[in-house]
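Subject: design request, 183 residues
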């Protein structure tokens, strides 16, 4: 897994391999970086699955700034999405923690569904969000309303005014989703 703020799991794997090869150059090394559902999940899948394709998208970050993110299309039509890429801690303005949301995660999921994926693998670690996934579900068609019937604001502050949830328009992956969680 990654070493937050210092080196990614892919870079750590490469460094270990270089060190090993400097002493045992005849050994065959197979590099398989790992991730726990947080940062590096897309990288780990890409290194393990031949033919995986990175799919770029610009989404709404946890503090409403645009974020360039990627999801991974596997050869079998599965989409791999990393919450940290769209709504991760490293993307958050530290002054806005109660407003952090998962709208960008939902936008990545929508991009994958629009591309025709049948199944999703969702890496849910490394989150900056405080909305319990309400932003993600909003992007997927759910409606979270206050007592007047108006949509609630994004983030934790918005949840305080929540009085009803309408999930009738919620989009899902036809073959389902798998969640990878680090905690």
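Subject: RE: design request

Done. Sequence follows.
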């Amino acid at each position: 897994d990654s070493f937050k703020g210092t080196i990614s799991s892919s870079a750590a794997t490469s460094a270990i391999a270089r060190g090993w090869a400097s002493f045992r150059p005849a050994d065959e090394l197979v590099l398989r970086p790992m991730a726990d559902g947080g940062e590096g999940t897309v990288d780990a899948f890409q290194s393990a699955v031949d033919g995986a394709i990175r799919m770029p998208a610009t989404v709404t970050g946890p503090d409403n700034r645009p974020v360039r993110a990627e999801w991974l299309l596997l050869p079998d039509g599965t989409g791999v999405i990393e919450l940290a890429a769209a709504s991760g801690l490293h993307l958050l303005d530290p002054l806005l923690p109660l407003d952090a949301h998962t709208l960008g995660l939902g936008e990545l999921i929508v991009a994958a569904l629009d591309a025709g994926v049948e199944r999703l693998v969702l890496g849910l670690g490394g989150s900056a969000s405080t909305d319990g996934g309400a932003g993600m579900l909003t992007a997927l068609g759910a409606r979270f309303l206050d007592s007047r019937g108006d949509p609630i604001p994004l983030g934790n502050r918005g949840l305080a005014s929540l009085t009803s949830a309408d999930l009738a328009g919620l989009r899902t992956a036809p073959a389902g989703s798998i969640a990878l969680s680090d905690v």
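Strands lie at 53-60, 66-73, 78-82, 119-123, 143-145, 164-166, 177-180.
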